[in-house]
Amino acid sequence: MNTPVLVVGGGPAGLSAAHSLASTGQKVLLVDKADRLGGAPILSGYAKLVPSGEWAKDAIGGMVQRIESNPLVEIQTRTTITEFSGAPGAFKYMLAGEEQTREAGATILCTGFSHFDPVNKPELGFGIFPDVVTTTQVEQMLSSGKGVKCLSDGRVPERVAILLCVGSRDRQIGREWCSKICCTVSANLAMEIREALPQCSVYIYYMDIRTFGLYEDAYYWESQEKYRVKYIKSRIAEVTSDGKRLIVKGEDTLVKRPITIPFDLVVQAIGMDPNVDNARIASIFGVELERHGFLQRGATYRAMGSTTRPGLLVAGAASGPETIDDSIAQGQAAAMAALTSLKAPATEAA
Amino acid sequence: MPILSKHLIRDENLIRNENLVIEGVDVSGDWSTFIKTRVVQDYNDSLQEDIAALPGGENIHRCWQCGSCTNTCTINALNPDFNPRYWIYLIRIGMEEELIRDKEIIWQCVSCNKCTSVCPRDVMPEGVMRATAHWLELKGYTPESPATIFDKVFSSQVFAKGKIEEGRLMMRFFKKTGQKLTQDWLVGLIRGLVLRLPIGLLTRMGLSALIHPRTRDWSNHRMAIAEYITEQKALHRKALGLPTTEESR
Ligand SMILES: Cc1cc2nc3c(=O)[nH]c(=O)nc-3n(C[C@H](O)[C@H](O)[C@H](O)COP(=O)(O)OP(=O)(O)OC[C@H]3O[C@@H](n4cnc5c(N)ncnc54)[C@H](O)[C@@H]3O)c2cc1C
Ligand code: SF4
Ligand code: SF4
Ligand code: SF4
Fold first, then answer.
1. pLDDT tens-digit profile of B8-60?
2. Could you tell me which of A192, A212, B140, B209 has the fewest CB atoms within 10 Å of its CB?
3. Do the domains spanning A5-112+275-342 and A118-271 agree at the CATH topology level?
């Protein structure tokens, strides 16, 4: 119990793992490369979260405070791991900027995901037209209290298009996965926009709506029924401008017709990419990546949170698109696996 | 260029100028034939609001285009062009011109409500069809359908008398829809009745056809109903932005 467990990454998954470990009296070293803890919801300034409706700064901010005030947790921000070696129960590692090797009984990787960079889909206008923005930017407009506005001239939009699956489900850019949460997040944002701007129409362009599980009626149906958000079945192929407004082009597959519809604001529902650091993480920690570039899980059922390296655990969006609540659950599961491996390292070879 | 496979294009989508000279070149007739663009260039939110404001159309915004209604539809089985799912979509995105194109089939809905019982989102497509037919009438795109005329004759009799009397009902309906009174099936029906029903009942039916008994103390009810109907009619017309004083047809 004296050697701290190493938790890399202080997003929802890492915060949950660290808290679970510390709750049992286990010491933890929590390392994050960013200048503060909280992961994507805090660093990217998300607004109200799915599904609790709590503001990210309250909900995840609360998890950060809980960790920061826990004497069993040592926090190192703006830090990465440069070397990692050893066997389960006796890992050795080095922090960037330190000369001395540290030791860990168990290690959990909670290094999360990277947002898809939409300049990789130039035909959708991001970086060319200021009024083409991402879901992350709309989250920030809402969470900062500045409101949803067109970035070109600050006007309040009368018509907003949300394009789903930008950077997901697209072989052309080597992204064959579904990012899982963006349908629900988009329905949620659409409702927030309609609530803030009742005069503004919101259209969502989709191929499939994947508001899985209990999100179906709470987000998809609610956005249609209560907030009158309209869903159009089309994968938008191009965003241009007529000099005044943006023009969204695609095919309305239900009426078999091309569409060129004017919009004030176009929001791209950007996907969850593998963490841009993953190649480096894989080589430093000696773990394998799965074919999309996320961390490969070792086992699906028998050992929660395992990677391809015995004793090295993973939780959250590091191993594939994940929600916050599932990342938190995985963080706790990985903490349990870590404690088990410390108590009975011999049986943990799976 | 003349368009060779013109038969594939709807007439209204062809534009042709009989006399057109561009920069001194005569391009009249076939030489100036254009195909109108099929591109959807804008949405019109108000069409859905119109339909939603009429009785039956309230839930139209819930539709997610699953097609269950069309699949189960009695009329669609006979006429594949009768497609409630499609019309609901046209209304939702405001493709008014497309919708009006089907005005001759939309009213054919027989209100069997199979669609309503199968719809997973409780859109009540039968109601939407009713509202749409109503909308087409109010906007003057279609004359009143026989079903609407029947409804009107039927209800005006109930409102006036507090009860229904089949003989008069059918007579008025036939008259209003320009059908002859001696329909073969009707004559056959009456002949059958006369042969089979007991004398006492026949006498009573005959008497009531002549005397037109009223429901006692009906006038208060009649006035209340008339007031309500005028109010509702005005509401519907107002919702569509039409003048509210409709001369009764
Ligand atoms: C626009 C958008 C909105 C979303 N809204 C919701 C929502 O409302 N509800 C919901 O459930 N989910 C939502 N999600 C998903 C949510 O962001 C993720 O589920 C969650 O952030 C995953 O948590 P995590 O801890 O696994 O990873 P992250 O949040 O990505 O945290 C990873 C942490 O690791 C650190 N890190 C990364 N690499 C290294 C390294 N090499 N060394 C050290 N530290 C490192 C990072 O700095 C970061 O702090 C949304 C996603 C997007 C894109
Ligand atoms: S969750 Fe929805 S928007 Fe996101 S990738 Fe999957 S289908 Fe596309
Ligand atoms: S069954 Fe209901 S939801 Fe499905 S297409 Fe018809 S009206 Fe829409
Ligand atoms: S009520 Fe009308 S639309 Fe519905 S199934 Fe019957 S005929 Fe078809």
1. 777 777 888 888 888 888 888 877 777 777 888 999 989 999 999 999 999 99
2. B140
3. yes
Asked if B222 has any chain A CB less than 8 Å from its own CB, the reply is no
Show residues of chain A in contact with B62, CB under 8 Å.
221, 224-225
Q: Please report the ipTM that was assigned to this predicted complex.
A: 0.86
Q: Does domain A118-271 have CATH number 3.50.50.60?
A: yes
CB contact under 8 A, A261 and B41: yes
| Cβ-Cβ contacts under 8 Å, B43 against chain A | 201, 203, 230, 261
CA A88, A89, A91, A95 torsion: positive or negative? Answer: positive
pLDDT tens-digit map of B166-196: 888 888 888 888 888 778 888 888 888 888 8
Query: Domains (ranges, CATH) in chain B?
Result: 6-35 (no CATH), 47-138 (1.10.1060.10), 155-236 (no CATH)
Ligand nearest to the CA of B73: 4
B43–chain A nearest CA distance, Å: 8
Instruction: Tell me B108's DSSP state.
Output: T
d(CA A49, CA A43): 14
Residue A209 near residue A219, CB atoms below 8 Å:
no
Task: Spell out the domain ranges in chain A.
Answer: 5-112+275-342, 118-271
